[in-house]
Amino acid sequence: MNANPTGPILERRQLRELGRHPGAATLRPFYDRYAALVFSSACRRTGDAAVAESVTAAVFLVLSRRARRLSRKTVIAGWLFHITKLACRKYKRDAARVRCGWFSRLFRRSEPSGEAPPLSHQIDEVLDWLPARHREAVLLRFFLQNEWSMVASAMRSSEKRVRKLGERGWTALLRILARRGVDADASSVAGLCAAEGAELWSNGPSGSLFASCEAMLQRPVRTTPYRIGRRVLWTLGWARWRRRVIVGLPLLFLSMVGILAGSLVFVVALGWARVRKR
After folding, report:
1. Is residue 255 part of a domain?
2. Which residues contact residue 188 at a Cβ distance below 8 angstroms, ignoring those fewer than 6 apart?
3. 8 Å CB contact between 18 and 30
4. Residue 138 domain-assigned?
5. What is the pLDDT of residues 70-86, one digit of tens each?
6. Nearest 5°: phi and psi at 37?
7. Which structural domain range is residue 67 located in?
8. What are the C-alpha distances in Å from 13 to residues 19, 74, 208?
9. How far, in Å, CA of 241 to CA of 247, rounded?
10. Contact, 80 vs 59, CB < 8 A?
11. Total tally of structural domains belonging to the chain
12. Torsion angle, CA of 183/188/193/196, rounded to 10 degrees?
């Protein structure tokens, strides 16, 4: 599961090219580099290789549509991991709605299972709890098997700082797993992350996965990956406007208060000046 970024400068240049000209040719470098990471995460989250293929196609469709909005500081591995989580959540929600309807979901209770899920199924959930910078360092170093120098260049930071972030994130990951009753050392977890991702990627997706991505880019068809991608894009757009509203409303309120206070001070000063003239 080695994904050598061949230099973050080249990757940012490819990202700008993908934003300007979204298509199969510009998407292919990112697919070759990160498809194994996305597919293995989708497999662990959904437990179904066929569903993971649809999620993977949806994630790269979202990447092609949102590439021009990503900043230069965005770490592609961490961003794709986050989009994979959103896409899996959307698929599970749609599947539950189709299976039992919204009314019965209100009164349905999940039965607690007696045994804990395996380690591989908890990795992504634990990674979601880590801070973003720690998660990006862990993904680049331990999942994509990059050297610390490449990780530092991809995260636009010093190697010493990135190494500290990665070690803290990895320690926190092991601590959360131990809190959940999983007794595993660092070497076994790291080996499982690398080996399982390579095994899932070699045995899982069909050769037509990138062809389906290319077909969706050329002519949108209402397939499962397209519906998942549309819902993820809508969620990202709504989150953007929600941030604007959350930041803008207090500023608007403060500006209105400032205008009213300024007007009141002006009226009081004008009245006081007239009183003094009398």
Report:
1. no
2. none
3. yes
4. yes
5. 988 899 999 999 999 99
6. -65, -45
7. 8-106+113-245
8. 10, 13, 27
9. 10
10. yes
11. 1
12. -100
Answer whether 215's CB lies under 8 Å from 221's CB: yes
Q: What six digits make up the tokens of 204?
A: 């899982």
Q: Model confidence over 204-215: pLDDT tens digits?
A: 565 677 777 777
Q: How far, in Å, CA of 245 to CA of 243, rounded?
A: 5
Contact (CB, 8 A) for 76 and 11: yes
Which of these ranges, 9-13, 35-39, 126-130, 246-250, has the smallest mean pLDDT?
A: 246-250
Retrieve residue 200's tokens. Answer: 């899932």
CB half-sphere exposure, 268, CA atoms < 13 A: 6
- The answer to whether residue 272 scores a pLDDT higher than 60 is yes
The CA distances from residue 162 to 49, 136, 159, 221, in Å, are: 33, 10, 5, 42
For tokens 């994979």, name the residue: 84
pTM: 0.78
Q: Are 1 and 36 in contact (CB under 8 A)?
A: yes
Q: Let me know if residue 233 belongs to a domain.
A: yes
Structure tokens at 20: 């300007």
- Asked whether residue 263 is domain-assigned, the answer is no
- Give me the long-range contacts of 111-118 (CB less than 8 A, separation at least 24): 116/180, 116/181, 116/182
pLDDT at residue 149 greater than cutoff 50:
yes
| Confidence category of residue 258, pLDDT binned at 50, 70, 90 | confident
Name which of 42-46, 185-189, 196-200, 217-221 the model is least confident about: 196-200
**Length of the chain in terms of residues written:** 278
